[in-house]
Amino acid sequence: MSIIKDFLLQLTLMVIPIFIYFTFIKERVKSDKNRNVIMSILWGISILFCMSFPVSFGQNGRLELRIIPLLFGSLYGGFWSGIFLSALIILYRLYFGISLGFYNTVLVLLFSLPVILFFQKSFASSKKDKRVKIAVGLSFYYCLIGLTFFGILRGFSIDYLKVQIIHLIFVVVVTWFFTMLNETIREIHQLRLEMQNSEKLRVISELTSVFAHEIRNPMQVTRGFLQLLNDPDLPKNKKEYIQISIEELDRANEIINDFLSFGKPLINNNERIDVAYQLQRVVNIIQGYSLNHKVEIKTDILDNCWIYGNPQKLNQSLINILKNAIESMPNGGIVWITCTSTEDRYIKINIKDQGIGMTKKQIVRLGSPFYSLKERGTGLGMMVSFQIVRSFKGKIQVHSEKDMGTEFIILLPQIT
Ligand code: ADP
Ligand code: MG
């Protein structure tokens, strides 16, 4: 029983840093350096526990997994993490006294750390499968070196070989398992981030054709006026023509600006956001799309509404909701956008359509990934919008009735 307990403890010591990393550190700690420092400390603690509570079995049989924290710390954290963890192992071993075991520890590290650090670069640039192979290969190599030196120092015997081979198999299997676990969680995290971005690209590509049209219109108007101005017999309305041309060009410029700012890669910059101003930009961006769908957008937006967050994200989430509202009215209609502030200090954005609406069941599923009732839908728009509003510490409420229309209420914490 005690063997199993010890064994489970060793495994737990590997799991804890991995989960702490993905739950508390990966997204919250922004700088790579701080992340490495924190992870080195966590892996260091895990090494100390591994060495303090090994699995004992048979005569002289001792199993422990210190190689795994050392390996993970060095492979994911790089050179200095590797040096720090190795030094920690040597110092802690020294604390138990200078014996054959101590020399063995030092020798094994001298021969294995350079190899681990040599493979670190190619590990960092590899994909999951190759990473697993490198990690497993290195832990195999480490155990083999340990087995050889210990044998040379103490002498080989059948019993000794048995213990060491069990140790080797044990370590290699556990290394394989934890590298797989770590890499799989990593992939899932990565996928979540990519999903947000890919949904944005899709919306952009859908809006692009409408944009091209929007920009061509003012161009053509201006071109027409320039042609007229070229005519020597028509100087009468000269001023007016020039004025209209300038306005049209300004408008084209504005559309291009808004579009570019929407397409820019997300920078994680939070700032004070003027909601009225952003709503107006969003309406500008979506205007062409709504006209194409014979949808009119009516707005009633209160000035002086400030929130704190990333304006690009806010725009993205509003555009996804507005696009759905427009698409819910195949025969055209009106979308109302209002913005007010509530007594409990929220900014309340209301987006209401006269579209096909949703049943109760459909509302419940809204926001789940890939839930879409459209032929060419992705079912990611709402998920991304919900995520963004949540990241603003806001709330979304949806009221909808089949064939009557839908109302989205977005509440965002107000600042002064
Ligand atoms: P997509 O638009 O690609 O289908 P979304 O995540 O944006 O994906 O929306 C998911 C589904 O929610 C839509 O397919 C639609 O059925 C429903 N939906 C969202 N907004 C509305 C709305 N305003 N009116 C009616 N149905 C809506
Ligand atoms: Mg959508």
Bound molecules: adenosine-5'-diphosphate, magnesium ion
Tally of DSSP β-strands: 9
- Runs with pLDDT <50, length 5+? none
Order of helices and strands: HHEEHHHHHHEHEEHEEHHEE
Q: Return the average pLDDT rounded to an integer.
A: 88
Question: DSSP strand (E) fraction?
Answer: 5-15%
Largest sheet: 7 strands, mixed
Structural class: alpha+beta
Please tally the helical runs, counting DSSP H or I stretches of 4 or more residues.
12
Please, how many domains? 2
Q: Would you give an account of this structure?
A:
Helices cover 66% and strands 13% of the residues. The chain has 416 residues and is of the alpha+beta class. Strands 3, 4, 5, 6, 7, 8 and 9 form a seven-stranded mixed sheet that branches. Strands 1-2 form a two-stranded antiparallel ribbon. α2 packs antiparallel against α3, α3 runs parallel beside α5 (100-124) and α9 (275-292) runs parallel beside α10 (311-327). It is elongated and about 110 Å long. The structure holds adenosine-5'-diphosphate (ADP) and magnesium ion (MG). Adenosine-5'-diphosphate binds next to α10 and α12. Residues 210-416 form the Histidine kinase domain. This is histidine kinase.
Compile the SSE list and pairings.
Elements: H1 2-25, H2 32-52, E1 55-57, E2 61-63, H3 67-77, H4 79-95, H5 100-124, H6 128-154, H7 158-230, H8 238-263, E3 271-274, H9 275-292, E4 295-301, E5 306-309, H10 311-327, E6 333-341, E7 346-352, H11 360-365, H12 381-391, E8 395-401, E9 405-415
Parallel strand pairs: 4-6
Antiparallel strand pairs: 1-2, 3-5, 5-9, 6-7, 7-9, 8-9
Helix pairs in contact: 1-2, 1-7, 2-3, 2-4, 3-4, 3-5, 3-6, 4-5, 5-6, 6-7, 7-8, 7-9, 8-9, 9-10, 10-12
The chain binds adenosine-5'-diphosphate and magnesium ion.
